[in-house]
Amino acid sequence: MKQNIFSARVTACAAVALLAALSGAGAQQGVQSERRITAISDDATRSVVIEQLSLAKESGLPAGAMEPLMAKAMEGVAKKASSKSIRSAMDALQKRLRKANDLLAPSPTAEELSAGADALYVGVPEKTLKQMRQAAPRRSIAVELGVLTELVARSVPAAKASKMVLDLMAHGATGAQLTAMNTAVQSDVAAGLTPEAALDRHGRGIMSLLPPPPAVTGANHR
Amino acid sequence: MIDDRDELIERVARSLSPLPPNNSRAKAQILAAVRARRARAPRPWTVVLDWMRQPAFSVASAGLLAAAALAIGFVTRGALATLNEPQAPLASSAGATPANPNVTAIPAANTPAVVRAVPVPITFDSPGAKSVAIVGDFNDWDGTAAPLTRFGTNGPWTATVKVMPGRHLYAFMVDGKLVVDPRAPHARDLDYGTDASVLMVNTP
Fold it and tell me: What pTM does this model have?
């Protein structure tokens, strides 16, 4: 009996300590966000931000989605946007974040969610996000999504940019190689080359440096 | 032989016989010292173990334990966050290529499983400015989070900000007004109508 009480209390101690440690980051972040919200001088804007963040929480968006939402709100404040514009921007971002959360399942990071939402914003097809997650299920693809977003934002056709980035990922291209390709494409476009031609040129250049993707083995392989 | 042994016994008996009488003062001192030792505050781990062995559960003690655990949790997280911070920038490191040619992202030591913020040196030319800060999605567009300092009297404004790998939007706040970076690509902003600059940071 005495031993049972002893072990129950040991377990209780461990559980309390674990919960406390896990709650630490969220609490710290919450305090920071609260400080930023209370610093908003316009009452209407402050109400909109609180309302939108509450709606996002109630709708079941993961904690990681709150960071880009908060950043979007504060961007509006910094740009002296009206409360109406901020509500509209936060609402639209919430929808993109929800979609990105589904497409980048099972557990996208805050950076991936933000990058996924940005990719959808510029017109990257939804299925591309899913394919990118499948191509790299165990590491962050925030850089790859960022490069794809930049390419599409610079008028490279979304389908072509998606295919190139997916091909390069399949061949094991690093984030640094993709970023270098993006920088080179932008330089060529600034020099007068069409975005498509620039992507072809630099995408193939990087591809030539990479080994072929590993062969797929399966039941039908003979 | 037997005689010798008897003599030895006699000598031992003689040496043992003058034992000191029972000293009551010494006895009192010893007992006082033992009592004082028992009265001294017990060690913390002894208290915890004693608490765990007590048959009754006390709400107050559980509350105290929870408070202590919270404090430990926060302190531990803070310490771990400090440990996880990247090292100081190395001038010739490679691996991060920002979209802004003026900005060089410097990677830090990293483990494959954890993505960490990368210190990015920032420079901005604005000789006539009184104050410059960099604002972006990485610091909630907070004009007080990352102020730049002027290099010399009329030199460029500089700062190093920690940014997670990926694509980021930013601007400079020059004397309270937002200004895009003239040397970085711009991103069209359909939400608020004010364009921002683009910063690409690689995974180190």
Answer: 0.68
